[in-house]
Amino acid sequence: MKKQFYIYVLPFLLCMGCAKSFLEEKPDASIVNPKTLNDCRRLLDNDGQLGQGLNYWFPSLGQLASDEYYYNKATWESTVFVQERNAYIWEDDIYEGNPQIGEWNNSYYAIYVCNVVLDVLNNIEVTAANRDEYNDIKGTALFFRAMWNFALAETFCLPYDEKTAANEMGIPLRYSPNIDQLEKRATLEATYSSIVQDMEQSAKLLQNKTPSVFRNRPCTAAAEAMLARIYLVMGNYEKALQYSENSYTTYNVLLDYNKLTLDGDAIFDRNNAEILVMCTQQGYLSTAVGRFAPNSFVDSTLIALYHPKDLRLKAYFTFTQDGKANRKNLYTTGLNGTNCFNGAATDEVLLILAECKARAGDLDGTKILLDNLYKNRFAAENLPQLNFNNSNDAIQQVLDERGKELLFRGMRWSDVRRLNVEGRDISFKRILGEKEYILPPKSLKYAFLLPIQEIQFSGLIQNKR
């Protein structure tokens, strides 16, 4: 017990009196000495600092840097946070020397909480009476540790490429809550191996196969959906196919937009039937719901992808008199209107499965999946007729659907990163006043700089520019 007290209490006392690296910063005193399964469950459900549990405030710098939205120069100049303004134009140092970066701090705080829980579980005897609850709590801790490490990798590391991952820098991997155990950056290969290992173990331990009424706790189908997303990012389409098929077979409910009231902003309940697990990104006004950011508009190229009869046009957007689109609240109704959903949902699983089938040459399987999506996104009399010329055509049509269906979930940033690894040469472009900004396909800026405090206090190697 003395050892546990040192691990959980002393770090808290130390971080009270001085500014430290956030790899060393610890949570408040309300969680310093958990002992029971109930203590562990309470930590995972609502840790006390992230506000509503480990589901919220995931890194969103990639969302800020993506091309799903735009605004004019005057609106850009009035943005509140320097990283919000600078991520928009892909500056070298988006923080302008600010040492406290929420995307990094929140992530390692959440990972710390997961490690506290896993450490406490090592000292709890497993019995026939508590085994199911024990396994579910452990599976939940592993699920969120994997989620937060994955979010860090997608934000602060270059895109995964199996040919170079063993030599690229990943993130510091922390498995212990001990303040003395400082970690250097692992390789990118080791980073993703750790993420996959945690999530695969989670999928085996979680007790609920499908989501419960409240979506804050993960289930097996959610863990398998996240494995599909992770393997998709890694370019391992065989594994992404396996896990998306597992998840989709277990739970595949889609919302029928024909049965929704599409007027107004609050269309989607945050516990709606498509959500496998609720998670959100850190909020910024740039990517907020239109009523909070009326001068932030959805990219016109993206809007042009929608069929005029697509019900998503009315479900997802409001339009100004001159035809510009603002986004509505997408899956986060009742939460902060600046937060974007980034949890797992059945529509994403369907599209991962469809893309993997297209890449494997199963065009009939791809068509069945997209037809199922369309019948829930169009009125019966307006259903588009799907035809694929070949596998590449099918892949592109699925990618277009990902853009239309998964907008403002952080997926565009991840998709461009992974697609450029396979040579698609996609660039981002912004125009502010008379000046044009371009993020080329091979830019080192696809990995955001680490906070300067981590370089100074933890001795981490900074990303190149």
Automatic annotation (TrEMBL):
SUPFAM superfamilies: TPR-like (SSF48452). Transmembrane segments: none annotated. Keywords: Cell outer membrane, Membrane, Signal. Residues 22-232 form the SusD-like N-terminal domain. Pfam families: SusD-like_3 (PF14322), SusD_RagB (PF07980). Residues 1-21 form the signal peptide. Residues 348-419 form the RagB/SusD domain. Gene3D superfamilies: 1.25.40.390. It is found in: Cell outer membrane. Belongs to the SusD family. This is SusD family protein.
